[in-house]
Amino acid sequence: MTLSRLIPALGLALSLAITPVLAQSTPVTIALDWTPNTNHIGLYVAQAKGFYDEAELAVEILPYTDTSAGTLVANHVADFGILGSIGLFTQRTAGADLVATYALVQTETGRLVFSADRQDIQTPRDLDGKTYGGFGSAWENALIGTIIRHDGGSGEFETVTLGTSAYEALANGAVDFTLEVYTWEGVKAERDGPAQRAFRYADFGVPDQHTNFIGTSSAYLADNAETAKAFIGASQRGYEYAVAHPDEATDILVAANADVLLDRDFVRASLQALIDGRYLMAENGTAGTIDPAKMDAVGTFLFDAGILKDGNGAPVTAKPDFTAYYTNDYLGTTP
Prior knowledge:
Layout: H1 3-18, E1 26-31, H2 41-48, H3 51-54, E2 57-62, H4 69-74, E3 80-84, H5 85-93, E4 99-103, E5 110-115, E6 131-134, H6 138-150, E7 158-161, H7 166-171, E8 177-181, H8 182-192, E9 196-200, E10 212-216, H9 218-223, H10 225-244, H11 246-256, H12 264-276, H13 292-304
Parallel strand pairs: 1-2, 1-3, 6-7, 6-8
Antiparallel strand pairs: 3-10, 4-10, 5-8, 5-9
């Protein structure tokens, strides 16, 4: 090789040696269980603050659809999804490939509510014979019946399936009571009225639970263990950051969902309720940890109530091994 050809070749080799190799981001998708709200805030924070970028992930938060997140995950349409507790137990028992990997909330956010001016409702047994505005699941009947019977009632009530219209029906007196998520509908009622009173499930014989999770499939975990750990760890950082910086986190969620027209003050109040109630972060300062005792208690409750069914729709006759329904192995370490 002549000197004139050698010098450019050496220059190219040198440039390749000193140029850093850019890491290829791994794509990850997560399906929401509802329109964007404060339960999802850590995902948007992790995305906006670059936590996913630092983990070399290209995360796409999929828009909410009528198909449940659990179905999307089990059918490998989404890598991860926001899974409701009851949906996780029922779908997994029926054969869906679902595994909870992060507890979004540390304790139950739901409650049974009724108008504050109902003097005829003082304890759960007063709900006997009254009308419930419901959402159409077997879980609701088992839940409400347990609450009433725990207080000495018969557990008999009328049900009108209304979906989210139940809240309007409660406000105008068309139904006597319904169920709501305290940290969303409950906060809205506290701010805008009408005033409500409520019964907490766990005060009346129903086991406390993690209301929802980030979950995936065992197939995904088997093939993408490191990616799963990176995603859960970065998401955990997002939720921890939201607790520590609620004003900034609120602005991030609202800005990321401008098309939804979220009320900034309401979102901030909802996030504060999640923080004050120790929903996002436990008393010991940890976020995301799934409590085995809670999982077994809720799973057993559902099994005893005949709600858990196999793929053919028949109630299972042997209690499943609920330890296979979740894992804490992919959580990060809290700083």
